[in-house]
Amino acid sequence: MVIGTVMASPLILWTLGVIALIGAILPFHPFDLFYNYGARFLTGTGNIPLSGPPRRFACGIAAVWVTAMGFLFQNGYMVTGYILGGLLIAVVTLVSITNICIPSMIYRALFGWKDKKS
Prior knowledge:
Blueprint: H1 2-6, H2 10-25, H3 30-43, H4 53-74, H5 78-98, H6 102-111
């Protein structure tokens, strides 16, 4: 995402949008497969559990967000694309470092704190 933003690359961002959309639809994120079937054997840890509704909601927001960034860059709205890119990078960095996911918090504020079965 950082590379797609820095390069203002619609193709990279749209590809990430498709990957995020798959993560919103399926009960797992496609990148989880790399971990569950590869990296976890190197680290000696367990599988990443299936995604609940808050995580899928966050993936849906990300899909729309990076797709919109791609269209902004494609149509010459560079400043707006970079602002949205910077904000998304900040949100993703926050969840990566602290496990605080703002879109998941929005989901829980809208639909409650108890996970519902998918």
